[in-house]
Amino acid sequence: MAWIYLFVAGVMEIAWAIGMKQSEGFTRLWPSLFTLSAIAVSLFLLSLALRGIPIGTAYAVWAGIGTVGTALVGILFFAESTDLLRLASIGLIGAGIVGLKLVTP
């Protein structure tokens, strides 16, 4: 169950990162409220995941999911660069997430 909490926490990190962009510096009410809610849910789920996953692994995976997911959303919806080096770097982060999952009970 801890890994499910961690995965959903990572997805919520993606949500709050995108929400932060949409809030335009917290000047728009609804995107700002969404962002703050997503941050709270993400951190709460991360705290639940920490009951069963070592902190170093959990934090790295949580941040990695957020990083890779946010970068991919940026590419798909905000016309961000698809430069080969950028994509390879995102892939390396993804490989690190998978590696940490494989070596953590």
From TrEMBL:
Q: Where are the transmembrane segments?
A: 33-50, 57-78, 84-103
Q: Please classify the protein's predominant subcellular localization into one broad category.
A: membrane
KW Membrane (keyword) present: yes
Q: Which GO terms describe its molecular function?
A: transmembrane transporter activity
| InterPro entries listed in its UniProt record | EmrE-like (IPR037185), Small_drug/metabolite_transptr (IPR000390), Small_multidrug_res (IPR045324)
How does the record say this protein sits in the membrane?
Multi-pass membrane protein
Q: Name one GO cellular component term.
A: plasma membrane
Recorded superkingdom:
Bacteria
User: What keywords would UniProt list here?
Assistant: Cell membrane, Membrane, Transmembrane, Transmembrane helix, Transport
Tell me the compartments it is located in. Cell membrane
Q: Which GO terms describe its biological process?
A: xenobiotic detoxification by transmembrane export across the plasma membrane
Does the record bear Transport in its keywords? yes
Family classification: Belongs to the drug/metabolite transporter (DMT) superfamily. Small multidrug resistance (SMR) (TC 2.A.7.1) family. Gdx/SugE subfamily.
PANTHER family for this protein: GUANIDINIUM EXPORTER (PTHR30561:SF0), SMR FAMILY PROTON-DEPENDENT DRUG EFFLUX TRANSPORTER SUGE (PTHR30561)
Q: What is this protein called?
A: Guanidinium exporter
